[in-house]
Amino acid sequence: MVAPRPPAWACWAAWPPWPGGGASPAAAPKAAADDSDDPWADDRGIFDLDQGPQVAEPADPIDRLIRQHGKGAALLRAVREHRGLSLEELARTTRISGRYLAALEEGAFDRLPSPTFVRGYLRQVAQVLELGDRGVVEGYMALFTNQRG
User: Fold this and answer.
1) Does the domain at residues 62-148 carry the CATH identifier 3.40.20.10?
2) Domain limits, the chain
3) Which alpha helices (DSSP H) does 12-114 contain, by range?
4) Is 49 left (phi over 0), alpha (psi -120 to 50) or beta?
5) Considering Cα of 75, then 78, then 79, then 80, what sign does the dihedral take?
6) What is the mean pLDDT of residues 117-126?
7) Which residues 6+ apart lie within 8 Å of 80 measured at CB?
8) Are strands 47-48 and 52-53 parallel, antiparallel or unpaired?
9) What is the DSSP letter of 112?
10) How confident is the model at residue 103 (pLDDT cuts 50, 70, 90)?
11) Which contiguous run of DSSP H or E holds residue 146?
12) Model-level pTM?
């Protein structure tokens, strides 16, 4: 049976024939601080207003370095050090001048040659450092183009 509609002058909270009998939930006295049934009472959710969404840490250490350093100059040095290579070893392996490799790692764009050479250097370095297809070359080149114009 459907509860009859209250008259226009009646307040819902005071209208007695609420389904299930008794007063409406709005008129019911508040329970004590028992939030065990409240799904919103748990503050361990996946979104923290102070820190933003909590994203799981990547399992791959290189992905962790990318998240920490971005896809710029600092990433190249961090991955090289993670792989245990010195700058001289990288220069010998890639056959790129040590001063250009140092400029790549420092983000000293004014000490680097034309964008065509820089893109080639980055591809070689990414291959030796086993960065794969993570967009490092494109990310670095975007920074390089924005800085040099």
Assistant:
1) no
2) 62-148
3) 61-69, 73-83, 87-94, 98-106
4) alpha
5) positive
6) 95
7) 87, 90, 105, 129
8) antiparallel
9) S
10) very high
11) helix 136-148
12) 0.60
